[in-house]
Design goal:
The complex is a heterodimer of chains A (318) and B (535). Chain A has 318 residues and is mainly alpha-helical. In chain A, 77% of the residues lie in helices and 0% in strands. Chain A is built from 14 helices and no strands. In chain B, a hairpin with a 5-residue loop joins strand 2 and strand 3. In chain B, helix 1 packs antiparallel against helix 2, helix 2 packs across helix 3 and helix 15 runs antiparallel to helix 16. Chain B is globular and about 70 Å long. The chains are: A mainly alpha (318), B alpha+beta (535). At the A-B interface, helix 3, helix 7, helix 12 and helix 13 of A face helix 7 of B. Chain A: This is ABC transporter permease.
Amino acid sequence: MGDIARLVGQRLGLGLIILLVISVIIFFMVELLPGDIAQAVLGQGATEENLAALRKEMGLDQPAIVRYLAWLKDAVTFDFGSSIVTKTPVTEIIGERFMNTLFLAAYAAVIAVPVAIVLGVLVALLRNSIFDRVANVATLTSISSPEFFLGYILILYFSVKWGMFPAISSLSEGMSFGELLNRTFLPALTLVLVVVAHMMRMTRAAIINLLASPYIEMARLKGTPPWKVIVRHALPNAWAPIINVVALNLAYLITGVVLVEVVFVYPGIGQALVDAVSKRDFPVVQACCLIFAATFILLNLAADVGAILTNPRLRHPK
Amino acid sequence: MTNAKDQVLLDKLAHAAREGKISRRSFMHYAAVAGVTSTTATGLWTSSAKAEPKRGGTYRLAQHDGNSSDTHDPGTYITFAMINLAHTYRSYLTQIEPDQSLGGDIATEWSATPDAKEWTFKLTDKASFHSGAKVTANDILASMNHHRGEGNTSAAAALLADVADVVDNGDNSVTFKLNSPNADLPWLMTDYHLAIVPANEDGSANWQSGDGSGPYKLVENEFGVGSRLVRHDGWHGEGAYFDEVEILIINDPNARQTAVITGDVDAASQLENKTLGLLSRNPDIKIDNVASAAAVTMPMHTNAAPFDNPDVRNALKLSVNREELIEKIQFGAATIGNDFHHSPAMPYFPESIEQRPYDPEQAKALLKKAGAEGLTVNLSTADSVTSGAVDAAVLYAEHAKAAGITINVVREANDGYYSDVWLKKPWCMVQWGARPTPDVMYSLAYKDDASWNESFWQNERFNVLLRQGKAELDDAVRAEIYTEMGQIARDDGGTVIPYFPNFVYARRGNLEHTGELAASWPMDGARAAQRWWFA
């Protein structure tokens, strides 16, 4: 297992360098946005004097590079600073919202991953049947529709017409877990519809690819039933690409949900990021983006490790 | 009861009250004019008013335009969500009443010296902060000084720039000393930045705690997400009928609308005009469509050709079909403009000025007179200016063809529109927020030396009248002054004002109000939580 530990170590080190580069890019992107925080905060009624006073108070009179280095110095010690606008620590602004985002992503993943893989196996088994066609058309339709549109359709039927689930997923303190699941069901379902197609089709393709292999032929010849051929013989070899796609979709569930948050009024991290960008509130933008970047890095790493663990051949590259 | 004439007036008042055409405040006012004591008048109001407010219930509002970087600092209130919240948990010296008159909030009465350079506000002794302390003159001073002085970071600094000093008179009143006369000061006190917050020991304002003296007290609050408030038992004013108020920030117009349709909330603070027609068919929902003092303007640079000729300016004003713009761009939710920046929602509105029609023939004649037949001009606009801004410009260009005018619509970038286009391009489209009085609006954007004089317009008589009106304390004289100024701006000014966009909001059928709505902000001047009730 030593080689895996080394791989993880290497990849984590590389990840840190990537995060550093990303933080530089984000900082200068925020700098490039027209207008500055003082203008965004004071709006139309601002005078030159109070703009200057506000800039000084927020430390914006310092050159950009000085501000970046000051931020970096704190960030190295995991102190991500405070919002320039509200003076609240970034961890406080983002903390709870990030947990909300994670919860919604987990909720969607718990439904989507098993459904996608089971469906993938089934359509591989029944390939070119009417079931295969219907499942493909349905999932492709849902992945091709913009997610806010899917959200509106679900709201129209499940809330407005049938009144089964609430249209607004606002959270309040002291909500029971059951109530929470009920409130967030529609956004979770929207996300499930968006990610299932990708994972299901990859499962199907990976399995069908293997079905032409000689060892599958062998299994068939010795009289193994078709479902067993797929589950016992094909699937273990297909895990690597499937895990990769699952990881990619999990990352999407965390980083790509701002539209769903807006449609369902769910207090996640995406909305916080949009708000911070509109105010040019750099520390909050930076923290959100680094969380997103770290999510991608870690999930990709997990996918690679997972692929290696399920396929011993990958541990000994020729 | 005095005589037959007063009795007739009272009968009329009672009738108006039953029909819901008159607010309680105006009822009391007119009843007092008719010589009725306030106790009798209150009795009369209660027996004749159409709907009587009931206490109780939780009022849930879907609020637009909230941001997670909103703060409790009144100097940087900027979003509609904060304007609405501020009127719910904090109070002001004065307030705009549902009948658009000026009423008291923390101040009970106010008066000026004859030169309008000193204003004294007498404070109510009933007001208290949610933390328990009484609201004193000291708190008023701290709240006002928060926007004044060197190095302050308030967006209201310009508004109070003329205030030389605010002093505590020691008898529960404060006096504002001004550098120059300003008859509008009590109106300015309704500005949403000028919320009253408690004073610190050192005289600075303690806004950080979120304490206030408004009708509701914050219990839970997360900026950009929502707030929960409960009734403040020590509230000094009328109303606050709900037990609790829940404000949910919903920035997506579709989600707001869905929430009010499904009953997840009781009201939505802003609707999209294009869905009004469909929504109004829903029997459970009532829509309030209120003329506002916000405006869409198209200022021409009157110091440059071809706009330096008043005939050219008037020809352009005659070439726009305002009714069609309102119908097609605003879906009917706007009030017609008449090329002077004074909305019917502002005080002293001059009814007598004739509405300018769409008259391409007359426009043609004016252009001929100016020697500018077949005029070609550029009109700059951007999508972010107002909803349907580019479409409105294109429609205007079509209207103007009938007068032989070619308007080239120039679509500018949304970002930086107000720094690169406004005041720079010779003719552009602008959206103005509501201002409380004509004086504030004219001083800001039409005065000869104003830095935002967007049409670079110089009219001597207009500016003389502006200065005169600012110092005039007699309402009747002021109304005459603003009528003349409106006429001058309409006939000589360089700004086309096609319409004033309305505030459009929705409520569930069981949510009631007096039938009159303050037009300063959406949701009854942002005071729905204080004034409305459940049937």
